[in-house]
Each structure stands twice: as C-alpha cells, then as structure tokens.
Amino acid sequence: MALHLSSACFSAFSGSKVRAVRAVASEQGGVSVKTTDEGKVKLGGSELKVTKLGLGAWSWGDTSYWNNFNWDDRKLKAAKSAFDASIDGGITFFDTAEVYGSRMSFGAISSETLLGRFIKERKERDPDFEVAVATKYAALPWRIGRESVISALKDSLSRLELSCVDLYQLHWPGIWGNEGYIDCLSDSVERGLEKSVGKRLREAYNQLKKRGIPLASNQVNYSLIYRLPEENGVKSTCDELGITLIAYSPLAQGALTGKYTPNNTPTGPRGSIYTPEFMTKLQPLINRIKEIGEGYGKTPTQVVLNWLVAQENVVPIPGARNAEQAQEFAGAVGWTLSNDEVEELRSMASQVKPVVGFPVEKL
C-alpha cells in the first residue's frame, strides 16, 4: 500500500523564501528527477537542485546507535574530514535532523550543530562554496499546534547557523495525525524559514498542492537488500506523482560494503540486526557485487550505490564518518551498471530475507 509508511520523511519546495512555486506533477507516471547542466538533479517538481548522491549525518554526534556509545575529539575531526572530503568530491547535499546527536536521543552533540559549524568553517576558507541542507522535524506526541513546527525549525536554524534550510522534512508520522503538520510545514515555507517541506505521499501531495507547494521528496529506508518501497507501492507512487525518493541506509548500515563477514559483524546495536547467520546468507550476494565491481574498477560500496541510482528518481544518502568513506562515495556516480547486472543483483538479493534497518522503523 502506497501510504503504508513509517520512519519516513517527505518534503516539498518553495522556490524562494516568500513565494511558493507551483508543483509540476507527472501526468503519465514518468520519472521526475531531471539531470541539470551542473550534473545535479531536481527534487520532484521543485526547483531545488542537489547532487545525485547526498551525505547522511545521522552518526555525527550520536552515542545511542553509532560510534560505540562514545564521542570524542578524534571522531569529531573524522566527521569534519568527511564533510570536507564530500565537498571536495562533488557531494554537496547534506541530510541531518534535530534528533540526531541530541539529548532527546541520548547523543553527545547535535548533528545540526556540527554540520552548521563545518559549513561556517568551510565558508571562511571558500566564501563561494554552496551546499544544500536538509533537516527534519520530529513529530513528538507533546508537540501540538501549528507553532510547534515553526518553533522547532527556528531552533534547527539556530543550531545550523543558517537563515533557512533547503529541505524541511517530517521525520516520522504524527501520533495525532498529520494534516496539521502539513499546514505547519507550509506555513514555514511561506514565512521564508525553509525552501522545502515534508509529508504523507498522495494525501500530502494534494494538501500541499492546494497551497501551491510541490511535495519534493519522500525519504525512506531503501537498499539492494531492503526494497520495501518497491513492494508496498511507495516507489511507484513517487514516480507517478513526480516525488523524488531519498534513500537512507542505502548500504544497509554497512552490511553491503564488503567490510563485514560472518566472523566480523558490525558493532553496537547493528550487531543484533546483522548477525553472523544473516551475514552468512548475504555472502553470495557480496561476492557477486565484488566481482561486478572489479570489472569497473569499483568497490562494493560504489556498486551498491550505483545500483540505487540506476533505479531512477532515487537520491541515496549514505552516512560517512570519515574522509575515506566520503571519498569512496564520490566514485559511485559518473558510470552505470548494465541492465543485466542491475537485474542480476536484484534477483540475487531477493533470495536474502530482509531485515529492519533500525528498530523504530515499523512503529
């Protein structure tokens, strides 16, 4: 079912700080992401252009799920190097959220604060450099009323040290319903606090359309081994309505990189998800990914990300905790897997029973 979404983010766009842009919907179900002259793509019917690959900042400052429950200066410097390496490699789209690294999620320092700091420091060296920043609003049970969204966004902007964000997203569906949140997100566009907003696919698309704001994107868990967006109709609905699908955890939190084996599983909470038993079943697919990559001079990580880009209308946002990872991501674009290879990997992946990539995903 197209509207069966959980732990997802949806976004819409206003082309300027005060004037809404009318969405352009696909009448024949065609894919709406169009490559621009700069090698970027447009998000849905918006005018927001982002790089074909983004960078997720979930792990920055986090100590509840990532970083082995510890954050120190070494990890801070590594995150800063990941940011700079991304910019140097041509990746300028960054995704964060108010809960990442925050006290409410038992983190050490807000991911938004870190991203804002990194942007500021980079601009001191290179005043002309540009980034596209996406963040998210947490629909917490006690947040009731239109002003809750505006207040949260202003707090995010303060942490980011920005006057507006390019993309604002609803992090998860609200317990008390979602219509009010959609109107609040529209309010923030019209007040000039954001260039893009977020909410619940077909219903959200129609509600935002009434206010002249196109629903630009829908962020969900999507990878070669977790293809629920294809199976529940979310991907096809995005394509039909001209909404870009932003894929978080595109590497299955590292399980598809080739780094882990049955004898070397991920640490922390991920270890209870990607168990030795699961990694054993995954090995034939990993081996084939490696073989295909060798033919292109590419790593398994680059092959897996390229597979997602090949699905069209998809912008993956893998997370990078150091410069080496960010540099590797940059090599995932600029080339294309063959159609036969895309389908072969899909067929092999279908033999692996999917796992939920994050515990709250199906709440």
TrEMBL record:
Key words of the record: NADP, Oxidoreductase
Pfam families: Aldo_ket_red
Keyword hit for Oxidoreductase: yes
Annotated organism of origin: Erythranthe guttata
GO cellular component, as recorded: cytoplasm
This protein's name: NADP-dependent oxidoreductase domain-containing protein
Domain NADP-dependent oxidoreductase: residue ranges: 52-348
CDD domains the record matches: AKR_AtPLR-like
SUPFAM superfamilies per UniProt: NAD(P)-linked oxidoreductase (SSF51430)
A GO molecular-function descriptor: oxidoreductase activity
